[in-house]
Amino acid sequence: MRSITVKAPVNIAVIKYWGKRDENLIIPLNDSISGTLSIDDMCAHTSVASSPQFTSDRMWLNGEEVDISANKRLVNCLKQIRSESTHDWTHHSLHICSRNNFPTAAGLASSAAGYACLMYSLATLYGIESPERISSLARIGSGSACRSVYGGFVQWLKGTDSQTSVARQIVDETYWPEMRVLVLVVRDTQKDTSSTAGMQLTVATSALMKHRVEVVVPARVEAMVKAIKDRDFHSFAEITMKDSNGFHAVCEDTYPPLQYMNDTSRSVRRFCHQYNEYYGANRVAYTFDAGPNACLYLLDRDVAPVVKLLLRYQTGLEVKGQAVDVNGVELESGLTARFDDKPCIGSDSLRYIISTRVGSGPQVLTDEHQCLLDGQGLPK
Amino acid sequence: MRSITVKAPVNIAVIKYWGKRDENLIIPLNDSISGTLSIDDMCAHTSVASSPQFTSDRMWLNGEEVDISANKRLVNCLKQIRSESTHDWTHHSLHICSRNNFPTAAGLASSAAGYACLMYSLATLYGIESPERISSLARIGSGSACRSVYGGFVQWLKGTDSQTSVARQIVDETYWPEMRVLVLVVRDTQKDTSSTAGMQLTVATSALMKHRVEVVVPARVEAMVKAIKDRDFHSFAEITMKDSNGFHAVCEDTYPPLQYMNDTSRSVRRFCHQYNEYYGANRVAYTFDAGPNACLYLLDRDVAPVVKLLLRYQTGLEVKGQAVDVNGVELESGLTARFDDKPCIGSDSLRYIISTRVGSGPQVLTDEHQCLLDGQGLPK
C-alpha cells in the first residue's frame, strides 16, 4: 500500500470568480485573485492510498463513506489524473479519506480546499510534479480549488482551455507578512442558492454581467496585482471592496435576484467604511462570497482594535484561530465616539470570529500519525 | 387676490431615474417611466394666491411656515415660472400653502407630488397652459415631479436641455383599467442616503452605471412602452422587476455602497417571485425606490389574494386606501402550501399597506372649501 497525506488551505477571493464559459471543464469568464489562508487555522486534510489489494475506489468524507460514482466531478477528476500518470499503481484501486478542519457551519467554501487537497495528494502519489498540472486538475473538481494549490496571493488565469486555465502565484506568503484575515461568521436562516446554479443564472439573465466580465474585472485584476506587489494596502482594500460589491451587484441584477448578503453582512460593510473614514485611509477591507459571512483583510496592527470594537457591540463574541489580545489595546476616544454615535452591528448577529493570516500552499505530512487511513487502508 | 388650488399625484417609476447629467437643470442620464397613482388615496394638495397686498413670497408646508430663500430649487422654480408669464400679477407676491395627503413616514417620495402640485398651481395662476412647459418647470423642482403632471403611464424623455427634458403621457388612466398598486410600508431603522447625494455617488463611482445608462435602460424603455400599449402584464412585470433590481445593483456597486433595501424588502421580493412561480406567469411585480418600501403593481384580480396571503404572515396588518375584501377570497391550497413551506415575510416586518390604482394627473379644485388659504391669504 502506498499512501500520501496532505493538508490544503482555504482561499478567499479578492477579485471574484463568478460565471463559467465552459461548464464541464470549468473555464471561467474572468481572471480571479485570492489570498490563501493559513492551514494552521482552517484546512482540508486528506489521505490517499493505492493498493493492488483494494477491490474498488472508496472514499470517506468527514467520517462517512460517500458514493464516488454519484459525484460526476469526482469521477471526472479521478479519471483525468489517472490518464496523466504512467506509474503501475495508477490502475490500482484507491482509498481516500478526507475531512475539513474548520468549524462546522462556517459557511466557508469547503470544496476549494477539499479538491485542492485531494488532487495534490493524488498528484504526489502518482508522481505528477508540475504545479500547473495540479492546479488544472483541482480546477476540474471545483473551480476555485485551482487557487488553493499555492500559498500567498494567487491569480487564476481564465485561459482558453483546460491546459491554460490555471492558477499562478503572484507573491508567496512571506511577501506581505503583516497581512491578516478575520472571518466573521454571521447568523443566518435563509438557504443560499448554490454558487454553481447562481452563477449560471447570472450569466443567463444579468444585463450588467457582460460589462463586468469584459471591462470591469480585467482592469481590477491588473490594479490588484500591482497593489499586492507594491504592498499598497489602501489600494488593495479599495479594489477588494469594490469587487465584492460589484459581484453582489450582478447577483442583485440576476433574475430572479440572488440574495447572499443579509442585513448583518451589510452592517459589517458599514462598520468597515466607518473605521476607514475615521482614519482617512483604508485599514480594513471586507469581501463576501456566495453567503452572508464577511471576510476582512487587514494588517496586523488593526486586528486587535477591530476585534475590540466588535466586542463593544457583542460582548462575549468568541474568537477562534489565532489568539487576539484585546486587553492591551486602547481604542482612541474619537473612534469609539464615532461608533457609539452610529452603531452598526446588532448585539447577537455574529456567531463567532476566526482569526487567521495569509499562509502557505498544500503541505505533505510525513508523520504517520497524521495519516487518516490505517494499515488496511480503512479510516482510523 | 387670485388663487388656485390643485391636487397632484404621486408616481412610482417602473423604469428608474437615477443619475443626472446636469445637476442644476436636472437633466437625467436616461429616460424613465412611471405609473401615476390615484389622487384619491395619496396626493399633494396646494393652494397658491397672488395679491398686490402681499408684501413678500411666503410658504407653509404641512402646517409650518418655511423659509423660501433657504431652498435654492424652490427659488429657482419661482424665478423661472415668473419669467415665462406675461400677466400683471406675475410680479405680485405669492402665498403658497401645501400639504401631503398621505400617511406620514410612508417613506414615499413626497417631493415629486409636491413640486408637480406647486408648478401646476402656479402655471394655472399665470396662464401657462402647455403641459410640456409645466412638466419642464416641475422637473426643475424635483426631477421625477415632471412625470406627476400626467395621469396613466408616463415617460420622462431625458432630452438634451431644459426644453426637451420633459415627460409625456404613454397612455392615460383609462387605458389599462385593471391596473392596481399596493404600497407595502416596511419597518426600518436605518437612515437612507438622500437620492440626490446617492445618485451623484453612483455616477461618480459605479463601474456598471455607464453600461446601465447607455445600453440596458434604452432597450428596457422601448420594451416597456410596448408592454404598456399591449396591456401585456407578464412583460410589464418582468421589465419592472428587472429594472428595480438593476437600479439596486448599481447602488450596490456604488462606493461606498448605497443600501436602500433591507431584509424585509428582499423578503417581499421573494414573496412576489414565489407567487409568480406558482402561476407560471407574472401576476405581481415589485419595485423599490431609494428606501425599503415595496410598491407592487398587479391587476385587480390579484389584489385580494395577495393581501390575504400577506395577512397569513402578519395578522392584523392594516390596509389603507381602497378597501380590499379578503373574506370573499378562497386561496388555492397549492398556493398556500407553497407559502407555508417557504415563508417569506417576518410576522412584524410591515407597518401597513396602501391599496391604490393608476389614476389621473393633477386636478384643479374649484370648490372654495378645498382652498387651503383664507380670504387674507393665510393658512386656514
UniProtKB/TrEMBL annotation, chains A, B:
Mvd1 C-terminal domain ranges (all copies): 181-365
E.C. designation(s): 4.1.1.33
This protein's pathway: Steroid biosynthesis; cholesterol biosynthesis
Major enzyme class: lyase
Reaction equation(s) it catalyzes: (R)-5-diphosphomevalonate + ATP = isopentenyl diphosphate + ADP + phosphate + CO2
UniProt-recorded Gene Ontology molecular function terms: ATP binding; diphosphomevalonate decarboxylase activity
Diphosphomevalonate decarboxylase-like N-terminal domain location: 8-167
GO biological process, one term: isopentenyl diphosphate biosynthetic process, mevalonate pathway
Entry keyword Lipid metabolism: yes
Alphabetical keyword list: ATP-binding, Cholesterol biosynthesis, Cholesterol metabolism, Lipid biosynthesis, Lipid metabolism, Lyase, Nucleotide-binding, Steroid biosynthesis, Steroid metabolism, Sterol biosynthesis, Sterol metabolism
GO cellular component: cytosol
Family the entry assigns: Belongs to the diphosphomevalonate decarboxylase family.
NCBIfam families, alphabetized: mevDPdecarb
Task performed by this protein: Catalyzes the ATP dependent decarboxylation of (R)-5-diphosphomevalonate to form isopentenyl diphosphate (IPP). Functions in the mevalonate (MVA) pathway leading to isopentenyl diphosphate (IPP), a key precursor for the biosynthesis of isoprenoids and sterol synthesis.
Full protein name: Diphosphomevalonate decarboxylase
Organism: Oppiella nova
